[in-house]
Amino acid sequence: MNVMLAFALGGWEWVVVILAVLLLFGAKKIPELARGLGTGIKEFKKATREVTEEIQNATEETHSSPKKSAANGQASPAQTVSQSSTPPKA
Fold this sequence. Notes:
By secondary structure, the chain is mainly alpha-helical. 78% of the residues lie in helices and 0% in strands.
């Protein structure tokens, strides 16, 4: 289903949808549902932010690790690959 079709509803269609929701859940239950939905969205954003931070920290650690080993006199993996990729002279 195309996502844009959901937003192509006119004014009367939205009125019918709202009335159907009122009939199904009742006026007292709607604020509770909205509160639960808000809490769920908040938790989802928090989890997304934590995963993004973990990925950024992991990438920063991998980028800083070769530089530290190169400073200690060890060849980084990129240097080793570039040196070994040149064919030996005959």
